[in-house]
Design goal:
By secondary structure, the chain is an alpha/beta fold. Helix content is about 40%, strand content about 20%. It has a single domain, classed as CofD-like domains (Rossmann fold, 3-Layer(aba) Sandwich), CATH 3.40.50. The chain binds ligand FO1. Ligand FO1 binds next to helix 1, helix 2 and helix 6.
């Protein structure tokens, strides 16, 4: 994949997995991941940035493959001691993970920007790709549910996504602006990839920053989304449940509609091949289940191949199916 500058928008585990696949097939430095910060929160007196860390650990190949988040081979000694002292113990923070939160919180208190913090950390882990928070000012996802308004991690972890979602707010989004680093990455991009992340929780916070949708619409680069919904279900997390609670069908078609004309290409899982003609976009049908590095790489290759075709002929009717399906 020569001289492709790929910008991937990601949040959560699904986004981090595809980002790792894209990094594995692109020349070093040709991938920039713009990461959701709506999940961030203050906890134990520290600033926790779960999506930035999940992307970082997956790109460094040191993530816990069971959960997708947190570090492989982690110990929880401090977590246990905090619990003994009556500290909050519903959000599992490992000892090595804590080092990242301590360094980040120290730098932020010194006035270092979140963008600079993320760059220092990814370089420490030897990651060739750029990892950019969507904004340097706080944006916090607030989940309006039948149990009241819940900060994101309280909904997602503490209440295990059980409350019924009525609406979402991204507190601070109106005052936020895309960082210069994000603007530069988008200006240089030859391809934009919306990773298979929750469209409401992981991608909307990024798209709700003033001017982002307009800037994306103006870009000549192809804009491809990989469906986070497969066979009517989310591969991980509450996306399908939220769709139903918000009165939508839990379908890849709901994802396409949600992007509201931003997309120029789409990737469906083999299980949803029957929907191909209902998607009014150049579409590739392939295996989107990322269970190991090889499947992440294969999906990344399919996305890049679609992107390359769309650069050449934007309205190409793509009829390709993955080898597995044919
Ligand atoms: N998700 C959980 O379901 N339970 C946890 O205890 C938990 C701890 C945690 C610690 C660090 C981190 O970076 C992520 C963590 N996550 C946990 C995932 C987190 O809730 C993310 O926001 C989700 O992956 C969605 O983006």
């Amino acid at each position: 994949m020569k001289n492709m500058k790929v910008v991937a928008l990601a949040g959560g585990v699904g986004g981090a997995k595809l980002a790792a696949g894209l990094q594995a097939v692109l020349p070093p430095g040709d991938l920039t991941v713009i990461v959701n910060t709506g999940d961030d929160f203050e906890h134990w007196g520290l600033t926790i940035c779960p999506d930035l860390d999940t992307v970082m650990y997956n790109l460094a190949g040191i993530h816990n493959p069971e959960t997708g988040w947190g570090l492989l081979g982690e110990s929880f000694t401090t977590f246990g001691a905090i619990s003994q002292l009556g500290g909050e113990d519903w959000f599992r923070l490992g000892d090595k993970d804590l080092a990242v939160h301590l360094r980040r919180s120290e730098w932020l208190r010194q006035g270092v920007s979140l963008t600079e913090v993320a760059d220092r950390l990814r370089r420490s882990f030897g990651i060739p790709s750029n990892i950019l928070p969507m904004s340097d000012s706080p944006v916090r996802t607030l989940v309006h549910t039948d149990e009241g308004d819940l900060p994101f991690q309280h909904y997602f972890v503490r209440r295990r996504c059980e409350p019924i979602v009525i609406d979402l707010s991204f507190v601070g989004a109106d005052q936020a602006r895309l960082t210069d680093a994000v603007q530069e990455a988008l200006s240089a991009a030859t391809l934009v990839v919306f990773c298979p992340s929750n469209p409401y929780l992981s991608l909307d916070p990024i798209l709700c920053i003033p001017g982002v949708r307009q800037q994306l619409r103006r870009m000549a680069a192809p804009k491809i989304a990989v469906s986070p919904i497969v066979g009517g279900q989310a591969i991980k997390g509450p996306a399908a449940k939220m769709m139903r609670e918000l009165g939508q069908a839990s379908s890849p078609l709901t994802v396409v509609d949600h992007f509201d004309g931003l997309l120029t290409g789409f990737v469906l899982d083999d299980q949803d091949a029957v929907l191909r003609n209902a998607v009014d976009l150049p579409t590739v049908v392939t295996n989107t289940m990322m269970t190991d590095l090889e499947s992440k790489i294969n999906l990344a290759k399919q996305v890049l191949a679609l992107g390359t075709e769309l650069m050449v002929s934007p309205s190409a009717k793509i009829r390709r199916r993955s080898k597995a399906a044919s």
